[in-house]
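Hi there,

I know you've been waiting on this one. I reran it after we fixed the sequence typo, so this is the corrected version. Both the input and the resulting structure follow.
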Amino acid sequence: MPADLAVIGLGHLGLPLAQAAVSAGIGTVGYGCGPTTDTPLTAAEVRRMSSAGFRITTDPAELGRVRTAVICAPTQLGPDRALDLSAIGEAARALAPRMRPNTTVILESAVHPGFTEEHLRPLLERGSGLRAGRDFHLAYSPSRFDPGNRTHTFANTPKVIGGLTPACTESAAAFYARLTDKVVRARGLREAETVQVLETNYRHVNIALMNEMAVLCHDLGVDLWDVIRCAETKPYGFQAFRPGPGVGGHGVPLDPNYLPHTTRTPGHPLRMVGLAQEINGRMPQYVIQRCAALLNEHGKSARGARVLLLGVTYKPDLADQEGSPAREIAGRLLDLGALISYHDPYVAGWRVRDQPVPRADSLYEAAANADLTVLLQHHRTYDLQGLAVKAQLLLDTRGASPAGAAHRL
């Protein structure tokens, strides 16, 4: 099948997009080093895509044979808490010299507002000799793929599109209309980019509120999980979020204090985002405090205590560990002198501070032998009622255990 689409970047964004395109009968080539460890697709799903004509290549010449190129390069927070956008630049430099007139280029990677026009556009124009909006179409579409979500799939999740020009928007919309039931047109590039900022920050801010409520309710002796159960019966004005040991995932909150100077506005109006990051960033330490307090209440010290960590991925029933708080929690336990082990049906081997962590083969036996078992991620395979019976102490950071069966966050 001749390729009509090139997906550049085969991680958590690119491979699901390629899968949706292949399912829609679009000839698709994936450009990059192949599926990465953070992809939510299984090896069997990738094989089925290959059987349907999907190809993976590292030859940039393949990029010159398609009508649509979607850049899904990874962007993560660097040590300075600014987005590392270097992978997008590499993708643009590979694509630009091979672009043909009338190509549609779409960016799906997380970026700050203004990036597509101010940074990606010049790279593509200089490298191709073509002009965006005249010789080729340029657009941005925030990714909304939710790994493991069986209800909201690529096909039934509306896709937001914003182009450099109205013609750019329509060209990108025509492409996505082949993959999804509904396309939503933003007024332009910046509006589409800011949709991604709003959606990601909305999640982090609301989780931060629930994390603060978790600490407050524990201090008050109130069952927060029962509070949430009751509150979510309200048919309007409330959406239930839940606390946890930290906030994982690929969608990073954009604090305006770490945006490029040209993107900032006087007064930095998103101060709440920075506060949410601070609150969420404290949760691993709060989990450690709860662990130490529980051990102390039962006459045990954290030093030398055997602690079993259950679930080290960022989301249930997936192998993806991106942003998972488990590694920080494990490191802090090691600092206290605890002897840690882990169990996760999706993670065959796990390292903390470049050292392998022992993996429990028999879950119930390990829980019975551990001084403390900490549920960090609730995979479906975990029988929390049974674990609560076997474990000497069980701290449930996800509120998944039956009331009274375990100590909950």
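Quick highlight: The chain has a mean pLDDT of 91.

Best,
R. S.
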